[in-house]
Structures are given as C-alpha cells and as structure tokens.
Amino acid sequence: MEGFLGAAYLWIKALHVISVIAWMAGMLYLPRLFVYHCAAEPGSVQSETFKVMERRLLRAIVNPAMIASWLFGLMLVAHLGAWNQGWMLAKFALLIGMQLVHAGYARWRRQFERDENPHADRFYRFMNEVPTLLMIFIVVLVIVQPF
Q1: Per-residue pLDDT at 1 exceeds 60
Q2: What is the spatial distance between Cα 61 and Cα 117, in angstroms, rounded to a whole number?
Q3: Residue 76 needs a FRET pair 20 to 30 A away by CA distance; which of 18, 47, 66, 132 works?
Q4: Whole-prediction pTM value?
C-alpha cells in the first residue's frame, strides 16, 4: 500500500470502523436514557441509577470512541491525501455537526446530574434522531464520493 500507513492501512481502517460503530451506538443510546430519565423523580433511586448509567456510557464508551474515530479517521485521510476532496470537506462539516450533538449530550448529562433537566422527553426523542441522519449522510459521502 502506498501512503504513510503502508501495510497498517487496513488495520487502521478496521479500527476506524470499530470506533465509529461504538461512538454511534453510544450516541443513539444516551438520548434514550435521557427520555426515560425525564420520567424519574429527581433524587429517586431510579434517577440516581440513570445518572450512573449516563455518566459511565459517556465517559467509558462514547468519549473514547469519539477520540479513536477522529484519530484513526485523520490517519486515513492523511494516508489517502483526501484533505481537499469535496466529499471529505462535506464529511468534515457533518462531523462538526456530530461533535456539536455530542457536546450537547455531555451538557445535558451534567444537567441531569444536577437535577436541572430543562427539556421534556419529546426533545430527547427528537435529538435521538439527529446522529442517525448525520451518520446516513456521512456514510453516503464516504462510499459514493459524489463530488
């Protein structure tokens, strides 16, 4: 293989796909926890259990998987020299959107931790769909490379 990764390219690609799957799994599960957390009385055993689940999911899975996704993904972009390709620039824009959603999830988790949730369950149901839409467009950009 050409490029700076050489024979490691396929391993880095596999690690990128694995980390993206883990990141997306967490990004799809966390807002579902928020939906159910909305129904729990602040200070209740159920609410405290959701707090632990949300914190562990974000810190142990979602955050590390996001970092790994970016690390391996940037290595692949450098290997392929795809920095200025139209599809990659569009993908980067959508990834910034995904990062903003991720940051929102982290913020809302901290609000739940303090029993200061400002949103109804309906809001989290809607926000549960945003990563899916972003992921669909990102995958199409990477596979089809329309421009």
Answers
A1: no
A2: 23
A3: 132
A4: 0.94
